[in-house]
Amino acid sequence: MGFNEFISKLFGNKASRDMREIQPWVEKVKAVYPTISAMSNDELRNATQALKEKIQNTVTAERAKIAELKASIENTELEKREAVFNQIDKLEKEVLEKLDKALDEALPEAFAIVKDSARRFAENEEVVVTATDKDRFFAAKFDFVEIDGDKAIYRNHWQAGGNDTIWNMVHYDVQLFGGVVLHKGKIAEMATGEGKTLVATLPVFLNALTGNGVHVVTVNDYLAKRDSEWMGPLYMFHGLTVDCIDKHQPNSDARRNAYLADITFGTNNEFGFDYLRDNMATQPSDLVQRQHNYAIVDEVDSVLIDDARTPLIISGPVPRNEDQMFEEYRPLVERLVEAQKRLATQLLAEARTKIYSNDKNEVTEGYLSLFRSHKALPKNKALIKLLSEPGVKTGLLKTEEVYMEQNNRRMPEAVEPLYFVIDEKHNSVDLTDKGIELITGNAADQTLFVLPDIATELSMLENDSTLTTEEKVERKEAMLTNYAIKSERVHTINQLLKAYTMFDRDVEYVVTEDGQVKIVDEQTGRIMEGRRYSDGLHQAIEAKERVKVEAASQTFATITLQNYFRMYHKLAGMTGTAETEAGEFWDIYKLDVVVIPTNRPIARKDMNDRIYKTKREKYNAVIDEVERLVKEGRPVLVGTTSVEISELLSRLLTIRKIPHNVLNAKLHQKEADIVAKAGLSGTVTIATNMAGRGTDIKLSEEVRKAGGLAIIGTERHESRRVDRQLRGRAGRQGDPGSSVFFVSLEDNLMRLFGSERISKILDSRFMGFKEGDMIEHSMISKSIERAQKKVEENNFGIRKRLLEYDDVMNKQRTVIYTKRRHALIGERIGMDIVNMVWDRCCHIVENYTFEDAKMEMLRLLAVELPIASEEEFNKTAAETKAEKCFQAAMDGFKQRTERMAQIALPFIDFVYNEHPEMREKHIYIPVTDGRHVYQIPVGLQAAYDSRGKEVIKCFEKAILLHTIDNAWKENLRDLDDLKHSVQNASYEQKDPLLIFKLESVTLFDKMVNKINDQTTSILMRGQIPVQEREQTNVKVAPDPKRNSQQRRYSENKAELGDPNQQAAAQRDTRENAKREPIRVEKTVGRNDPCPCGSGKKFKNCHGKNI
Fold it and tell me: CB–CB of 853/845 below 8 Å?
């Protein structure tokens, strides 16, 4: 017995400890279930309502206290409001903690209610209950509910994902285990076919009883819509509302209502984009999301691991015109790439001749040529084929070690003949001197593509005593401008080189019929709508493909999915493949992975990998295997890693006349239909990676007898999780099946990450083999898995580093978005203004002399310095001085705002009384700071009711939002530039991340100071220009409701809001798949009786507002 086995036997492993912890909860559910199952339908629903009231009543006192404190804010002095808000925040935290305890107590009863509801729907075609208002509301919208007198009839069949569905599922014990894990805020790893969607109904139902909302997050919009329709009736039966955000346009009332539902389904991208849009909103009515309470992420590994690297970005065109040089330099790069191809071919020919020589020196030269060819074009098919020969890969690795010794000391010698050097592992391309010489040609400036040593040049300039200060400034400007131009030029060349040498069409991206470059998700094979490569790479690919090169863009709002999902009070996830990434889930999200046992033992046979020398031999073997399995009557699922391989295999199967379906990035609209047919006898389906996740492949009895679904992997992915996902497609609920991976020495994983030890083993094994022969051994399969583990660790390091960069931005984003939300809602805006004034007062007294402080007080706060003499200023403690300045500034501010309200009130009364038709509208009130006039939209009714105070609040809100948005946009642009520029710090033996953190703090402080300066300067001078009533024109402001973000504030005829930002916020980011015809669930004529059973016509009842 090994040491690990001994320890596991002594203390138990993690899986057994997890099960021991969950078992008591499941026993409690089973104990209460008989009582629940004995209830009538009405009693069951009443039990739900009683449970809901019990949970919500636990925090009645705290919620009442919060409401009381909020009501007292308006009558509280500005300076004293912060303490009130701190008390509110503390109470809100207590509410969440109390609700968590109440939910734990309610868990057994709630889970038993859901399970028995599922049983009643499975056993009865109709479930009849006494009708409530909610039932009547549902009957008007859905055809699975019918009102008959005072009874509501729920049928057990409905439409889900465009298909007729009959409910036939009841939770079994292991699903109760999964439900407990999800409720506890952990990740439930459940094998494919174990009913994860049904498992989620248990914690979703329980947590929805709080009324705080539950989000169910899926990887694509088809699953979001299907699952909301499939599971929805189970929740609606108990009076809970269900909606899906992907069914509705962004920035619409319908989407806002979807978030107000008890249970909200949607895709990860849409939840993230809605968060960003909410933080670009200009009116409270524009907001759609509620507080982030509880979320369950389906296929959590795809969302929180694979998609986490790519930030969600809302961007728009840059305000300044930037000349893009991608098309201009494309011919130069094409010349460069062609020259490198010729050189790589020549070097490869030399290598092929010399490495088999008997002369030791010739062999060394041959391997150097091979190494150079590898550095020139690592994806060259002829090179990959040569590396699959016995001993060649080992010789290349040894040569690489020689030139990488002593921190790459001899590497320049190795790459000297090349035009550029490709590092495939680090995804980088670097021009050499020879390459620069080629593209420079006979240009007058031979340093056209050479970056100057700016640090040295600036140092020499500073030490030049012959120049005057003005001349130094002038030359410094010229140097920096020259550096910026050359930097952009070199950056363009590098990005074009990457596009031509490292990004392949139909592998990393596809080009659509309308000439758009779309990124392909490497994990799922789906097109990633709305995503673009950053840093000019996308434009470089567009130039390469000769399609329209889109304009350079700037970021208006951005967040990574990692940081978005960390905002939830409680987060859980479910998947079939999380165990291999358990360390990352814990390190980044503090999410524990719990493996749930299967309901039935897995009968799938997982075979050892079959290893071939070349890809050609491997693909021929795959086709032979498919042909054999089809003859046996078994369905076959062939997994590939790219669109290109899918299409190659499709052509090979067509030649053999084997019927098949292809599921890849170009065809993912047909995903559900193709996956649904994949379990039929003799059906062959080719699918990229994890395509079809979330849709089970169901087998007929005939197929089970034939041996079940056969999985064929055409390549080992660099992540074990992806391979496990592919294997998991077979063996659902104890079904028979098999899985096998076909691997070649030319595959990316083997080529890039296969160790020298694997190379030696394979070299010895393949010695004397004929073409088409294969190796199959468990030791080699384990060696490949070890290589995958190395890559996973490397990828985790990359993701964690990216997160560290984004964490810097996230801390800033949290501060800014909190300030922005306070301004938008208006509730805490007074507190923020008080803090800004205090900050400016402290800044002035700590950093300025007496005379300068006087000037700054007038410039920023529009009041005299309340200290009479310089002597008193110097003697007084800084805190005392700040307090005096603060009191003077606040007194001046209060006087100004009271005066504004007094001046505005007669005008408001006049419009309110003389124009009653305008009472529900917004009117423009002009406010000036002495330099600009701002037209502030104010709700007439609110202004009249508050006796003019609403004008002050709207003015403060408009100025704060405008100032924050402009400063944040500039800061994001500066952070992007900083992230790019700090990478050069590595050349100075400095950590780029550390430099980024230090510099970003400086940028943030600068931004906060700018916001505070601009805001206080405008607010402290605000006044309403006094006009005669006869001269006053009443201007009606556009209605600031949703869908009207076209409204602008005017500032001396200039736009106060950025139209590009508002247009970007309105962009539809939903998946741009070809839509199926809209299926209307229920059509009711306006004059027909309303389905709710009220006896009224539809137009006078539930159709009144349609």
Answer: yes
Strands (E), 204-261: 214-218, 242-244
Q: How confident is the model at residue 1048 (pLDDT cuts 50, 70, 90)?
A: very low
Instruction: Tell me the CA end-to-end span of the chain in Å, nearest whole number.
Output: 73
Amino acid, single-letter form, for residue 451: L
Query: The tokens 């193709």 sit on which residue?
Result: 674
Distances 268 to 160, 265, 308, 313, 641 between C-alpha atoms, Å: 20, 10, 10, 13, 23
Q: How far apart are CA 706 and CA 635, in angstroms?
A: 9
Mean pLDDT of 211-232: 91
> What SS3 class is residue 723?
helix
Query: Residue 391's pLDDT is what?
Result: 78
Tens digits of residue pLDDT in 563-615: 889 899 999 999 887 777 788 788 878 889 998 888 777 778 888 888 887 88
Give the position of tokens 């329209």: 548
DSSP per-residue codes, 503-524: --BTTTEEE-TTS-EEEBPTTT
Tokens coding 201? 């109904």
What is the C-alpha separation between 315 and 470, in angstroms, rounded? 39
For residue 158, give both structure tokens: 């409905």
List the one residue out of 345, 343, 517 whose CA is nearest residue 418: 343
CA distance 176 to 301: 22
If you average pLDDT over residues 951-974, what whole number do you get?
87
pLDDT at site 470 = 81
d(Cα 296, Cα 182) in Å, to the nearest integer? 7
Length of the chain (residues): 1106
Report CA Rg, the chain: 34
- Give the torsion sign (CA, 207, 210, 216, 217): negative
pTM over 0.90: no
Buried b (16+ CB within 10 A) or exposed e, 813-822: beebbebbbb
pLDDT computed for residue 1060 by the predictor: 61
In this structure, which amino acid lies at residue 541? I
Residue 747 near residue 615 (C-beta atoms within 8 A): yes
CA–CA–CA angle 826, 831, 837 (5° rounding): 120
Secondary structure of residue 714 in the 3-state scheme: coil
Which residue reads 């009405």 in tokens? Answer: 42
In Å, how far are 42, 959, 1056 from 1019, measured between CA atoms?
Answer: 60, 8, 15
At 1050, which helix (H) or strand (E)? strand 1050-1051
% of the chain residues with pLDDT over 70: 84
Q: 485 pLDDT band (50/70/90 cuts)?
A: confident
- For residue 628, how many other CB atoms are within 10 A of its CB? 12
- Is the pLDDT confidence value at 235 over 90? yes
Distance (Å, whole) CA 469 – CA 489:
30
Q: CA–CA separation, 70 vs 113, rounded Å?
A: 37
Q: What is the pLDDT of residue 769?
A: 60
pLDDT band at residue 378 using 50, 70 and 90 as cut-offs: confident
Tokens read off for 78: 């500005």
- The whole-angstrom separation of Cα 32 and Cα 50 is 16
**How many Å separate Cα 579 from the centre of its chain?**
22
Round to whole Å and give the CA distance between 156 and 124. 7
Sign of CA dihedral 246, 247, 248, 254: negative
Tell me which of 8-17, 376-385, 588-597 is least confident.
8-17
Q: Which residue has the higher pLDDT, 699 or 290?
A: 290
The count of other CB atoms within 10 Å of the CB of residue 970 is: 15
Q: Give how far Cα 819 sits from Cα of 758, 964, 975, Å.
A: 57, 8, 20
Both tokens assigned to 823: 């301004």
pLDDT of 987 strictly over 50: no
Of 86 and 664, more confident: 86
Q: Determine the 3-state secondary structure of 556 from DSSP.
A: strand
| Three-class SS state of 298 | strand
d(CA 1045, CA 448) in angstroms, rounded, equals 46
Amino acid 50: pLDDT: 95
